[in-house]
Amino acid sequence: MAFCLFASVAAADEIVPYVPVTSIVISIPEQKLLVLRDGCLWRKYPISTSKFGIGDSYGSYKTPVGKLRVCAKIGEELATGSVIKQRHATGEVLAANSPGRDPIVTRILWLDGLEEQNHNARARGIYIHGTNEEKKIGLPVSYGCIRMRSNDVLEVFEEATVDTAVTISTSKFPRYAKYTPPKPKIIAAVPPPRPTPAPVVTKTAPPTPTPAPVIAKTVQPTPTPAPAIASTKTPTTIPLKKAAPATPAPAPIAEYRPAAAEPKVHSSVTVSEVSNSVVARAMQGSILTAGLPNAPKISQAPAVPTLPEPSAPKDVPHFGQLGSKPPLEKGVDLQTPVINVPPAPPTTAAEASTPNSAAKEQEATDAKPAPRIAFRTSPVGHKSKQ
Fold it and tell me: To pair with 225 at 20 to 30 A between CA atoms, which of 127, 216, 263, 340?
């Protein structure tokens, strides 16, 4: 049950192994060896010191006294009773109390003096060792060393270490307290550091992707197929009709122009006035009253805009060439008719004074046929502006 408790404690905490300070004390008067732990009595063993007494000189075979130390440990792996000569195992193993032999057996703790009175101890080979004459233990019978039984020397060998203090005293032991092992020092197991929890990563829903703007696909216009080009056949040559010979244009008819005559005076109306006013108004009023001497006078007609003279085609022959267009005067319209009346010659003073000659000329003029009045016709499709 204790083991289980210890195991549970060990499992929970760490137990620090305690290593006490070991020292050896030898009393020549008592022929005893004490193993002390932390200055307290741990073990007590019987020993045997020199039969020649105490001392440190060479060849004296005496046991040195004072403070010494363990400078070496020899024969750690040898069997109990193994013979050791000059600090080397011979391979021989003797039983305890073998007759006729007094060798060093089992283990050796080599001592080194720390004081002036024992400074030759190491050179002299002063040991704590086992002996096969175990029956003489407790009596001073050695040659300077400290003898022990083989089993006892094994225990002291395990307790001692290099540099363990050894004190050889010529007095008896003082009273030592019994060694009590201290409570094991338990170091609370430090809990391992808790691993830092991994940061909780909140899974955020991925953002809804914004739909890409719908881009209207522009329908490529279907290319209009090129019009099929019919194979051009060589056009059939159509025989041309022979043009009829051009008929020569008729010779222009000379326009009749009467001889210039003096205007006939009829009361207060002259022929020039008729040509300028009465004739122009004849188409608007009654033609029967035109040119009469006693006819009522017609007031001056309002001005009428004159249209431009259309050009006659060059290739159209005229049956009667019209004279040059006279200057337009007020009151003349309807594609102003041209009256080829020559202007009256100026009357001289002599002529004015002879009324008879003027009357004769007037009569001659009356006897002549009336002058021909020509009207200029407008081309087809032309409308006069009134």
Answer: 216
